[in-house]
Design a protein that fits this description.
With 372 residues, the protein is α+β, with helices and mostly antiparallel strands. The protein has twelve helices and 13 strands.
Length: 372
C-alpha cells in the first residue's frame, strides 16, 4: 500500500476537481450499461455553485495504489436535510471504485467518515449525493438491464465494498414494471372511464412556472415522511425542470383536478439513458442538438413522481393518472413502462403501482452506518 493511499481534495482546486469528476468514467467507461453524469453539472454541484449544494459543506477523497487512482468519493453535510429530519446525519456520495481494491476503499471510507465525524456526524447515508434529485442508491440486482432514467449503473462489487466497511442496506428501493395486459390494469382502465369527478390535464407550457409550483408544493407536502426527501425551493425545482423544458412532453407531467383544485400529480420521463451514454459526460452544442432531435424517440419510460393530497386519497386519483399516462405511452409505441422509485415502507405508493398492473422488485439499496 502506498505511504499516502488517500488524499483529500478541495472543491476549490479546479484541476483536481476535474480529475475527480472524470475518474468514475475512467473506471467504469468500459461497462456497456454505465451512464456518465454530465461533467459540467457535477462541477456545479461539487463546487457549491448550484442551488442544490450552495448551503452544503463538501470535500473530496481519492484513493490510489501502484496503478494510480482507483477510488473516489465525496463527503457532504446538508444542513437543510438535517433540519428537516432533525438528525445530525451526513452523506457519502459520488462514489466510484475499480475492482480488487477493497483495502484502499476501506481506508478511503474511514477517512471520509472521520471528516464527517469532525463535523458532529454520527450516522452516514451512502451513496447519497446530498440531495435525492442528484442521485442515491447502488444497483443491487438486474445488472444486465438498462437502468431507468436518472438511476445509475454500478458493478456488483460495489455492494461488497460497503458491506465489508460496515454499512447496512437500510433503504430498499422498488421499481415496478407496468403490465398493460394484466387484469389489474384493465380493471383500473374501466374505473378511469367512469370517473367523471376528476379532470386530468397535462402541464401547460404557457404557464410553465405556475404549473411547476403546483407540482413542487404537492411533492413537498406529500413526500415529507420519505427518508430521502426534504423540501425543495422554487429555485431548485425550476432549475431541475427548466433545463429539460424544451424536451418535456406535456402529457408526461399530469395534474388531477377536482372542481378546479389540483389534488394529484404524476411526473414521468422517457428513458434517455441510451442517448446520454454516448455523450460521455459532454453537453455542448452538438450534444444538445442530438438530444433535441433524437431524444423524442425512446422505447422505455416511467413515472418517477406521484402524489395525491391526503384528503383526496381513496378516490382512485393515482390510478386515473396512471391510466392516462399509460394510454399516452401506448399511442407512442413505448414498449416498457415503469413506476419508480418506491420506498419499501411506502405501502400506499406500492399499492398504487400494483393497482395499475405494476409488478415490483427491489433493484436498488441505499446504505447507512453509525460511526463512533
Amino acid at each position: 500500500m502506498p505511504s499516502e493511499p488517500v488524499r483529500e481534495i478541495s472543491t476549490k482546486d479546479g484541476k483536481a476537481l476535474r480529475d475527480f469528476i472524470v475518474l468514475e468514467r475512467q473506471i467504469l467507461g468500459g461497462y456497456p450499461l454505465y451512464v456518465s453524469n454530465y461533467d459540467q453539472d457535477v462541477t456545479r454541484y461539487l463546487s457549491g455553485k448550484s442551488a442544490f449544494t450552495r448551503d452544503m459543506e463538501i470535500s473530496l477523497f481519492v484513493a490510489c495504489d501502484d496503478r494510480g487512482d482507483v477510488a473516489c468519493c465525496a463527503t457532504l453535510v446538508n444542513p437543510r436535510y438535517q433540519e428537516a429530519k432533525n438528525e445530525k446525519v451526513g452523506f457519502i456520495g459520488y462514489f466510484a471504485a475499480a475492482p480488487d481494491c477493497v483495502r484502499y476503499v476501506e481506508v478511503m471510507l474511514k477517512r471520509a467518515e472521520g471528516w464527517l465525524k469532525e463535523r458532529g456526524i454520527r450516522r452516514v447515508i451512502a451513496p447519497y449525493n446530498g440531495n435525492v434529485a442528484l442521485g442515491t442508491g447502488f444497483l443491487t440486482a438486474a445488472f444486465e438491464e438498462e437502468p431507468v432514467m436518472f438511476a445509475s449503473w454500478n458493478p456488483p462489487y460495489y455492494i461488497d465494498y460497503f458491506i465489508q466497511a460496515g454499512y447496512e442496506p437500510s433503504y430498499p428501493l422498488w421499481i415496478y414494471t407496468i403490465d398493460l395486459a394484466s387484469e389489474k390494469f384493465q380493471a383500473a382502465e374501466k374505473r378511469a372511464l367512469t370517473n367523471q369527478s376528476v379532470r386530468v390535464r397535462p402541464i401547460d407550457k404557457r404557464q410553465w412556472h405556475s404549473d411547476l409550483e403546483i407540482f413542487r408544493e404537492m411533492i413537498n407536502d406529500t413526500f415529507s415522511n420519505e427518508w430521502e426527501w426534504y423540501p425543495l425551493t422554487q429555485e431548485e425545482f425550476c432549475k431541475y425542470f427548466d433545463q429539460i423544458k424544451i424536451m418535456v412532453d406535456p402529457h408526461q407531467m399530469l395534474i388531477a383536478e377536482v372542481q378546479g383544485t389540483p389534488v394529484g400529480i404524476w411526473i414521468a420521463f422517457p428513458n434517455w439513458n441510451p442517448l446520454t451514454r454516448g455523450m460521455q459526460g459532454r453537453l455542448g452544442l452538438w450534444q444538445q442538438m442530438q438530444f433535441f432531435w433524437r431524444g423524442r424517440h425512446y422505447d422505455a419510460a416511467g413515472c418517477a413522481f406521484a402524489a395525491v393530497m391526503p384528503e383526496y386519497r381513496g378516490m382512485g386519483i393515482s390510478s386515473l393518472l396512471g391510466v392516462h399516462l399509460c394510454h399516452h405511452y401506448q399511442e407512442l409505441g413505448v414498449k416498457k413502462i415503469f413506476y419508480y422509485f418506491v420506498n419499501e415502507n411506502n405501502h400506499r405508493s406500492r399499492r398504487a403501482a400494483e393497482s395499475i398492473g405494476g409488478v415490483g422488485r427491489v433493484v436498488y439499496h441505499t446504505y447507512d452506518k453509525v460511526i463512533t
